[in-house]
Design brief:
- It is a single chain.
- By secondary structure, this protein is an alpha+beta fold.
- Helices cover about 40% and strands about 15% of the residues.
- The protein has 2 helices and 4 strands; from the N terminus they run H-E-E-E-H-E.
- The protein has a two-stranded antiparallel ribbon with strand order 1-2.
- The radius of gyration is 14 Å and the shape is elongated.
- The chain starts with 6 loop residues before the first helix and ends with a strand.
Length: about 80
C-alpha cells in the first residue's frame, strides 16, 4: 500500500523491488537459489472502492503476470 502514489510511481517501485530480488540469489549450502517475483499493481478508485475490491484487482493482476511468463510487474485494470 503506497498512499499518495500514482500508477506510474507504484509500478516503478514494484519494478525496482523485482530487479533487486532477481539480482540477489540466496546462498545455500548446495549453491544458490534464484529468486523472482510477480507483482500486481492497482490504484484504488476515488469512488470509495473497498480495500477488498482493490486487493482482488491487484491479485488478478499478479496472476496475469504469472500467466504471461512470471517475474514481471502488471498494472491491473481500473
Amino acid at each position: 500500500v503506497l498512499p499518495g502514489a500514482d500508477a506510474h510511481q507504484s509500478v516503478a517501485l514494484a519494478e525496482r523491488l523485482r530487479v533487486e530480488l532477481v539480482s540477489r540469489p540466496l546462498p545455500l549450502r548446495q549453491g544458490t537459489l534464484a529468486v523472482t517475483a510477480s507483482f500486481g499493481v492497482v490504484v484504488a478508485g476515488p469512488d470509495g472502492e473497498t480495500l477488498e475490491h482493490a486487493l482482488a484487482r491487484a491479485d488478478a493482476a499478479m496472476y496475469r503476470a504469472k500467466s504471461e511468463g512470471r517475474n514481471r510487474v502488471m498494472l491491473g485494470a481500473v
